[in-house]
Amino acid sequence: MSSQPEVGVVIPSHNRRALLARTLRGVLAQRDVALQVVVVDDGSADDTSDYVTGLGDARVTLVRHEVPRGVSAARNSGIERCFAPWVAFSDDDDVWSPVKLRAQLDALAAHGRARWATTGSVRVYGEDLRILFGEPVPRTSEVADVLLKNNIIPGGASSVLASTELVREVGGFDTRMSNLADWDMWIRLGLRSPLAVVPRPLVGYYTHVGSMAGNVDSALQDLGVIREKHRSAIAARGVEPSLENLLWYLSALQLRAGRRVGAARVLLRLVPLGRPAVHAFRNAAVGLVWPGLQRYRDRRDERALSPEWRCEAEAWLTAFRFRRACSDVTNHRSP
């Protein structure tokens, strides 16, 4: 029997076989852990299931939903099949450093009381996984109050490792939500346990036009569910989820997707909030008339990234880029 710590990894996927293949390379390359990977094919119409079963890797289990049930239900199906004491989550388009899981387990052991952990991340974009900016870890391990206001966990679900028992104790992911289901889960974990942090960029959070996070109406509906669901904790702690911060985030996603009118409409929803109205009007107007606004922001964010953070992320991202370059060469050879 392996003496390495056992970690389950749950990866929901829907019609993104090519991206899933890249994600799995990073997951299966994890060092110094015993892996149980559960890929949940949530009703894909492509060859996702055939690809996963064709891997022939005993560490990988396929769960198939014949009809799409949504990302929360898919994650829950994966959790049900996870028999390891620890479970990590990865979206099907993100990438990991090979030391990601081991670093989190070490941080949990050093903390002593924490039952979940996160790492820092970098936002990456395009087929070459160009780094846009860094996302640091929370500055405190006592995150319950902060999480009730904002989702401060970097890298989406892909940065979190948690006690499987704890995830089941809090009831898994809420199937009423899609865009903000991970935030709701982190709130519940934070109310039960402190957080262990790894202040290193060990996750590449992939940003692209097809990102589910760009669905504005769905995100706002999810925010309402979070507010109602955690009403008692919000009242007791005197904090509540920030609509303002969510709208700024959603407007940035719209702008990145080239939807300048959509970005302006999101920003104008800030007007009834009062204080940010002038700032919102100005940014909405600039976004409408200046197509290069997002490129300007990207360059600004790239310059703000610390050399140390960039160097560590670039070092392990190179393996994914090299694999892509080799694949391109092979595909262009004459038969």
Number of helices: 14
Radius of gyration (CA) equals 20 Å
Range of strand content: 15-25%
Which class do the helix and strand fractions yield? alpha/beta
CATH fold-level topology of the largest domain = Spore Coat Polysaccharide Biosynthesis Protein SpsA, Chain A
N-to-C CA distance: 45 Å
Q: Helix proportion of residues, in percent?
A: 40-55%
Unreliably modeled segments: 328-335
What is the molecular shape?
A: globular
* The CATH fourth-level homologous superfamily of the largest domain: Spore Coat Polysaccharide Biosynthesis Protein SpsA, Chain A
Q: Give the topology string: H per helix, E per strand.
A: EHEHEHEEHEEHEHHEHHHHHHH
| Strand elements, count | 9
Look at the structure and give the CATH class of the largest domain.
Answer: Alpha Beta
Give the number of domains.
Answer: 2
State the major sheet.
9 strands, mixed
Query: Architecture of the largest domain, CATH level 2?
Result: Alpha-Beta Complex
Write down the overall mean pLDDT: 88
Structure description:
With 335 residues, this protein is an alpha/beta fold. It has helices at residues 17-28, 48-54, 71-80, 100-111, 144-149, 164-169, 181-192, 216-229, 231-237, 243-256, 260-268, 277-289, 293-304, 307-331, and strands at 6-13, 34-42, 60-65, 86-89, 95-96, 116-125, 130-135, 161-163, 195-207. It folds into two domains: 6-212, Alpha-Beta Complex (Spore Coat Polysaccharide Biosynthesis Protein SpsA, Chain A), CATH 3.90.550.10; 214-300, no CATH class. The protein has 14 helices and nine strands. Strands 1, 2, 3, 4, 5, 6, 7, 8 and 9 form a nine-stranded mixed β-sheet that branches. Strand 6 and strand 7 (130-135) form a beta hairpin. The longest helix has 25 residues, at 307-331. Mean pLDDT is 88; it is low at 328-335.
